[in-house]
Design goal:
The protein is an alpha/beta fold and 553 residues long. It folds into 2 domains: 2-166, no CATH class; 174-255 and 265-546, Alkaline Phosphatase, subunit A. Helix content is 45%, strand content 9%. It has 23 helices and 10 strands. The strands form 2 sheets. The chain has an 8-stranded mixed beta sheet, sandwiched between helices. Strands 9-10 form a two-stranded antiparallel ribbon. It is globular and about 85 Å long.
Length: 553
């Protein structure tokens, strides 16, 4: 039995580690089920035995360092990001590094990072062993290194961003940017904007998710339900989603040079006027409330720098808790947050003039959520894993808050907006979600909004002008930022007019709008030098020019 007796000469551990690593990566990067990793591992070890990989008698041991180590490390980083977030967005990584990640609540992510690092070290050690013990792999791995580098999506993404420097036209989006301007109203309505973390409208699919979305579906019967709010690049994480829907622009990172290159940013998108700026100018008293720290990802800087006089996060709200231990790793649970939101609206309602409140939930945060104790009575106990429980809890808590406000008469002359900040990242039902056409939640109701459903091909950047028109403000052609109001159909959205592929291409190539967002952050001498040359588009169709706006008006 030569095949059987040869097994004892083949070290099992490094081969199993290599096979398991390959299987895990394939299950993360494809739609293969998690158990397929065991099949891949078995097949890998079988081939290893058949071909006698690493057999000491086949080749002389040589102490070499494989060329593939660096490419393997880059792939390890990419697989970790894909396993944690689903879609890997380089802009999100850059922005969080710039804006700061202090006071984050992702303790589970840190544990996963440690485990992933340990697994990567084992993988690298196993690969080194294989190359040193097998001359065939010493020859093959140099070609493998090139393949791994060329195929890595991280390097491809970096290459796309580097190509922006030499693009023919880096101002396509900026030419379509409309600086929002509002005229005063005699009795403007109040505004309550509730962001439901990652609670996308895709959960309406009852075949996959049951009655998870039922409370929001019932709420939508009272107002305007928008369908087709898609997610495009630079809008797919919390800060990006909030800035897209409040400023009408994608959140492009500040670039390599800004006012404090080796410290977190001092301001967040200071070059554009956003919802808070505009409403504060109209006499609104603006408040933001969120259960997590306002220090994370520049959240507090954004709101305090854009018209909000009250910015309340974990730092301000935690001392007000009756039970100081009732916290999750991010901060307050949403039942506590909504109690404080109710108190804040009561306070604002006693003041002269309109008010605006923006609220950010945490309950349905990936991967498993942070459901509040208040959900136990209506929904039962949480098993610690079921994201659908957390999504249903988030929907129930939000509708309960709205009902409490309504019963106290605090929603008179008030526009209520319920929206997901972005599509969810990797969760236990990820495979079901990505098999469907996904879109964001957007529901609005108020005295002047007739209940109906509106189907548009739109992005979260179109939410900004839609909110302004819902508040009764008139916008020329319904435009603000690079968004279009979804309450009127006289003007096409960028997605309707140009399609997702063109919009994605222009987002990759854009420089001018990025500079507009961060105006004033780059060193002054570089800013002055940059003013001398503004890239112009050489070739452009009439259809392209049709929706351009003069930025001088």
């Amino acid at each position: 039995m030569p095949a059987f007796t040869s097994l004892k000469f083949i070290p099992w551990l490094p081969l199993v580690i290599l096979g398991a690593s390959l299987g895990y990566a394939l299950s993360i990067l494809t739609r293969l089920p998690w158990w397929s990793s065991f099949i891949v591992t078995f097949l890998w070890v079988g081939v290893s035995v058949k071909l006698r990989w690493g057999h000491a008698s086949d080749s002389r041991y040589r102490r070499v360092w494989p060329w593939s180590l660096a490419p393997l490390i880059l792939w390890g980083i990419y697989v970790y990001l894909a396993a944690s977030f689903g879609n890997v967005d380089l802009a999100a990584i850059f922005f969080h590094l710039q804006a700061g990640i202090a006071e984050h609540g992702g303790i589970g992510r840190m544990v996963a990072a440690v485990l992933h690092t340990a697994a990567m070290l084992a993988l690298l050690a196993s690969f080194i062993w294989l190359v040193r013990h097998d001359s065939r792999w010493r020859l093959l791995e140099r070609f493998l290194a090139v393949v791994l580098l060329v195929a890595n999506p991280l390097l491809y993404g970096l290459g796309q961003r580097s190509a922006v420097i030499v693009t023919d036209d880096g101002a396509w989006l900026d030419r379509r940017y409309v600086p929002p301007q509002l005229e005063k109203q005699p009795s403007p309505p109040n505004l309550l904007l509730i962001y439901l973390e990652s609670l996308e409208r895709t959960y309406t699919n009852q075949e996959h998710f049951g009655d998870t979305y039922a409370d929001l579906a019932a709420l939508g019967e009272q107002g305007v339900v928008f369908e087709g709010i898609q997610q495009v690049e630079n809008t797919g994480w919390t800060m990006a989603g909030m800035i897209a829907s409040q400023c009408g622009v994608p959140l492009m990172p500040a670039g390599l040079l800004h006012d404090r290159q080796f410290e977190p940013l001092a301001r967040v998108v200071p070059g554009v006027s956003c919802l808070g700026d505009l409403l504060a100018e109209q006499g609104y008293e603006m408040s933001f409330l969120g259960g997590a720290s306002t220090q994370f990802a520049g959240k507090g800087l954004f709101y305090s720098g854009h018209g909000f006089s009250n910015v309340l996060g974990r730092e301000a709200l935690e001392p007000r808790l009756e039970d100081a231990t009732y916290l999750n790793s991010w901060g307050l649970y949403d039942d506590s947050l909504y109690d404080f939101t109710l108190e804040e609206i009561r306070r604002l309602d006693t003041m002269d003039g309109p008010w605006g409140v923006v609220n950010l939930s945490i309950t349905s945060h990936a991967p498993h959520g942070y459901p509040a104790q208040a959900c136990v009575d209506p929904l039962g106990e949480f098993d610690g894993v079921d994201i659908l429980y957390s999504v249903k809890c988030s929907a129930w808590l939000a509708t309960d808050l709205i009902e409490r406000l309504r019963q106290e008469g605090l929603l008179e002359n008030t526009v209520v907006v319920v929206a997901s900040d972005h599509l969810t990242m990797r969760v236990p039902v990820w495979d079901q979600l990505v098999s469907l056409d996904r879109d964001n939640t957007l529901i609005m109701f108020g005295d002047s909004l007739e209940p109906r459903r509106i189907q548009r091909n739109a992005t979260t950047m179109d939410v900004f002008p839609t909110i302004l028109e819902a508040l009764g403000y008139s916008l020329e052609e319904g435009r603000a930022g690079i968004g279009v109001s979804l309450l009127q159909d006289s003007t096409q959205t960028l997605l309707e007019k140009h399609g997702p592929e063109t919009l994605a291409e222009k987002l990759h190539a854009e420089r001018a709008l990025q500079e507009r967002l961060w105006e004033g952050l780059e060193p002054q001498q570089l800013a002055n030098e940059g003013e001398a040359t503004v890239p112009q588009q050489v070739l452009e169709t009439l259809a392209d020019r049709a929706d351009e706006i003069s930025i001088s008006r």
